[in-house]
Amino acid sequence: MKQYIYAIVDTENERSLGMQGIGGLQDIGDVNDEVSIVCFNGMGAVVSPTLTEDFPVNRKNTLAHQKIMEELFKEHTVLPVKFGTIGVDTQTIREKVLKAEQLKIKEHLDFLKDKSELGLKVFWVDSKNIFNHILDENPQIQRLRDHLNSHNGGLRRDQIRLGDMVENALKKKKEELEKKIFKFLNGLWIEHKKSKIIADNMVVNSVFLVLKKNEKQFDKAVERIDEYFAGQLKMKYIGPVPPSNFIELEVRW
Hints:
Elements: E1 3-9, E2 15-20, E3 34-40, E4 43-49, H1 59-73, E5 78-80, E6 86-87, H2 90-99, H3 102-112, E7 115-124, H4 127-137, H5 139-150, H6 156-183, E8 191-194, E9 202-211, H7 215-228, E10 233-241
Antiparallel strand pairs: 1-4, 1-5, 1-6, 2-3, 3-4, 7-9, 7-10, 8-9
Helix pairs in contact: 4-5, 5-6
């Protein structure tokens, strides 16, 4: 039977993990869809049987995938495999993935050993107040805003120019604030990636690859950020989780 692949872990112990797989086969006769580990040379592919070959990227499926990786992460170094990867059967996975790609997999596992991913999103509490600060700090924007207000909205081109000026000022203010926030985190991460800023009130949307021994220091640094900007910023701090944003194995059959 086809097998869904979640991750590769550092183990030589083939076993069932006692967790239900992403395929949801428990309602189909006597099919066992438990997650298990298939091993070769000290590496284990974490898999579960599936009758589905195309898994939509939706909340239900991605959470099921992530949940299993997070359980593995409690005991193992985890090399994430790209969401939706399907193997023909366990023997093919052993031969075409673990054996054929063993050097690359071992290199990735060695790099990820004793490391975790932490995510930090930072938002302004009061976006309206930030806009007022931008007006106070930029007389040119204030004059153009007042001019347009006094002329019933003014010309379309001036409205566009005002929008561009506010957007640029907002971007600059976010960049300055991000630098201040990152100073609290200096020296605590190995790699760092920025994700897209998806809201006007979002200042930081980043993930960090951190040594597990530094996790508590990172936690305290985030607490200091929260204390320093008390009432101005709110934060969403996630982790530790497997480092999917830094290394992800893409299998080509």
